[in-house]
Write a structure and sequence with these properties.
Length: 141
């Protein structure tokens, strides 16, 4: 990938990570049990509130650092698809006056899809591991 594309991917990765980190943190600070009750009221198992919050929080940290970017992004795609289908779809893309629409979730989902497809190697921990493995293979041969 060209350097400008890598810088762009880095920016997408860091912003996506920050947004999910903050969302995960707010779920825990606001009372994760309340989120579980809300999930249950929509027919979603309560335990998924904990799973989503952990993925958002820990995944946010990981993706900012560039650790498992494609895997974490794939989880984010699933979370955003669930948020759109189970919560936001009735309000439409831009909202219905009673609740916001799903434009933010759709945007975050497509940023995550981009990162699943392309990754983000620039300034990532994954790149350090890849370099180390390549160096080990060279030394073994």
């Amino acid at each position: 990938m060209k350097k400008n594309q890598e810088i762009g991917s880095l920016l997408l990765r860091v912003v996506l990570g920050l947004i999910f980190l903050v969302h995960g943190l707010s779920k825990f600070q606001g009372g994760i049990d309340k989120i579980g009750v809300w999930f249950h009221s929509m027919g979603i198992p309560s335990f998924l509130a904990y799973l989503v919050a952990i993925i958002e929080l820990a995944g946010g940290i990981a993706i900012i650092l560039g650790l498992g970017t494609r895997i974490v992004s794939a989880f984010y795609v699933l979370i955003m698809a669930g948020a759109i289908l189970f919560v936001k779809l009735p309000a439409g893309l831009t909202g219905n006056g009673k609740m916001p629409g799903y434009e933010l979730e759709l945007s975050l989902m497509f940023i995550a899809i981009y990162l699943v497809l392309n990754g983000s190697r620039f300034l990532s921990i994954d790149t350090l591991f890849l370099k180390t493995k390549k160096q080990e293979r060279i030394l073994q041969n």
